[in-house]
Amino acid sequence: MIVGYARTSTLDQKAGLEAQETELAAAGCEKVFIEQVSSVDLGAREKLAEALDYIREGDTLVVTKLDRLARSVAHLLVVLETIDTKGASLRILSMGIDTGNATGKLMLTILGGVAEFEREIMLERQREGIAKAKAAGKYRGRKPTAQAKAKEVKELHEQGIGATEIAKRLEIGRASVYRILNPG
User: Hey, is 77 helix, strand or coil?
Assistant: First the structure.
């Protein structure tokens, strides 16, 4: 059986998810597991775990791109071990790689290492850029989120100020004000 796995990092990436689904269908996937979760939060990838549990001997797990499956070589190797143990294989459409043979396994391990290296270099450059901007007084960081402003929201509410006015003053959504005031 050909089993697909599609993932995007955020709910905003609907078009990317639809494109993955289209590619997986074109590749002949009979069942597709879909989720929207950041690759950084590996523990929360329930659909990937379900897909790995679902595959059987002779099956092929198909993904459109390597970064949809794993962010690090260590994680990739864990996923590959799980797939190998079940007697299945992995196919990555964008790379033309199929781990059903030794060459495919070797290429995937090498490319996974290169991808991880690229990501580390990008993060290092980002940190350097932020440090330079801070030193030049041009970096202020992210705007505080509604959760970071929770104390201010509660203080304004205690002063009798309404949700709409609080949202306006703190430049957050009114729904965020209500979430802070009425958690749960």
Answer: helix
CATH for 2-113 is 3.40.50.1390
Q: Which of 9, 38, 39, 94 is catalytic?
A: 9
Q: Is 176 a catalytic residue?
A: no
The 10s digit of each residue's pLDDT in 136-180 is 988 877 766 666 788 889 989 999 999 999 989 888 888 888 888
DSSP readout, 30-50? SEEEEEE--TT-GGG-HHHHH
What is the pLDDT at residue 150? 85
> Measured between alpha carbons, how far is 89 from 55 in angstroms, rounded to an integer?
9
In the three-class reduction of DSSP (H, G, I as helix; E, B as strand; rest coil), residue 2 is classed as: strand
Which residues on adjacent β-strands are paired with residue 62? 4, 91
Domain ranges of the chain: 2-113, 150-181
What is the reported pTM?
A: 0.61
